[in-house]
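Teaching assistant's notes for section 4

Start the section by putting this record on the projector. Ask students to predict, before seeing the second block, whether Aminotransferase class I/II-fold pyridoxal phosphate-dependent enzyme will look compact or extended. Collect guesses on the board.
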Amino acid sequence: MSDQQLRPAIAGGEPIRPPDEAMGYGGQSITEDDKEAVAEALGGDYITRGPTVDGFEERVADYIGVDHAIAVTSGTAALHLAGRAAGFGSSDEVITTPLTFASTAHAAVYSGAKPVFADVKPDTRNIDPDAVREQITEDTVGLIPMHYAGQPCEIDELLVIADEYDLTVIWDACHALGSTWHGEPAGSHPDMAIFSFHPVKNVTTAEGGMVVTDDDNLAKRVRSLRSFEIDYDSPGHEDEPWYQVTEDLGYNYNFTDLQAALGLSQMERIESFKRRRDEIIDRYEVAFTNIEGLLTPTVKEGVDPMWHLYAVEVVEAFGCDRKRFVNAMHAENIYVQVHYVPLHFHPFFQDEFGYERGDYPVAEGVYQGLVSLPLYPEMDNEDVEDVLRAVQRIQQHHT
Ligand SMILES: Cc1ncc(COP(=O)(O)O)c(C=O)c1O
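Reveal the predicted structure now:
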C-alpha cells in the first residue's frame, strides 16, 4: 500500500471518500413507493391535516400499543404541547437529562418551568434514577427522560419515582421508535411519549413529530393545543356554523396529509430499517474488538434498541483525542457528529438558569469522548467498510 493510502487525509493522505461522495452520520431512506404515496396524497382533497393524518396516527398508535397518537409539526412541537398538557407552570421544576438535544429541556421552559438536570449513567448515557432522586424538591412536578441513541432508560425505576412524587412523565423517545424494553415498545409508558420524524430519525416525514398517550384527557388537550385551541362546535351556537372561538392560547402545529402519506409508507419498512441498522452495528462491533480505545455502546439486559445513533467513545488508548478524531474523519469526508454538547454548557441554560461547566461530571466525562459514527439504512457494505478503514488508518497514524 502506498504512503498516500496509509496516511490519513488530515495528515496529507488521499481522503477515503471523494468530496462528492461525502457521508453524514445519518440520513433518510426514500423509495419510489414513498414518492408515489406523497404524490397520491398531493392529488387528494386535503393537503393539510386530513384523513391521511388520522391514518398515520392510528398506525403509530397501533404500533406502540397506545390509545392516542397526535401528529404535530416536529418533535420540538410535540415536547412543547406535552409540557403544556402536563400543566407545567412558572414555579415548577421539571427534571431531565443534560445529555440530550435542547428541545427536551425546552418542554419545561416553554411552559415557564425550570429545567433541572440530573446526571446520566456512564454506560447507557441515560438519566440516572439515583441522580433524579437527588434533584427532587417540593417544586418538582415532572420528569422528561430521553432514550439516548435508542436505548430505553431504566423505565421501571423512573416510574416508581414518578409515582412516589406524583410527577408527570414525558418520555422523549425521539431516538427510540422501534425499540423495546422488556418486550414493551418505547413510548408505551405513562404519561406521554413524544417522537420526531426528522430525516435522520428511525422513520421520517421530512419534519414531524408525535405525542402518544393512553390518557384521554392529555390526548384531548394536546389535540386542541395543536390546532389553535379552537372549539369548532361551540355549545349554544349550533345555528351559527361559523362560530369557532379560541378557548386558550393554542398553536398551529398541524401535520399534513403529505407528511402522513410519507410516514405511512415508511412505517411499512420499519422492520427492515431495524434489520439494516443492526447489521451495520454488528459489522462495526466485530471490527472494533480489535481497536483499542474505542468504547462501543453497552446494551442493558432486556432491551432491544432500534439504534438511532451509533455513539462510541474515543478514549486515551485510541491514540488521539476526540477533537482530532472528528476532524480526521471529516478530512476523510465522513461527517461524524457529537450527540450532544451537554445542555449546561449552552449559554441559554447558563444565562437563564445559572448552570455551569462542572455541574454534571458524568455527562461531561462521557461527552469528552463521544462521537456518532454513520448509521442509516441506506449505507451499503462498502460505506461501512469506508468508515472502518478511516477509523483504522487514523488510529494507526496516531499510535
Ligand atoms: C432527543 C431529541 N429530542 C427532541 C428533538 C427535536 O425533534 P425535532 O427536530 O423533530 O424538532 C430531537 C431531534 O433532533 C432529539 O434528538
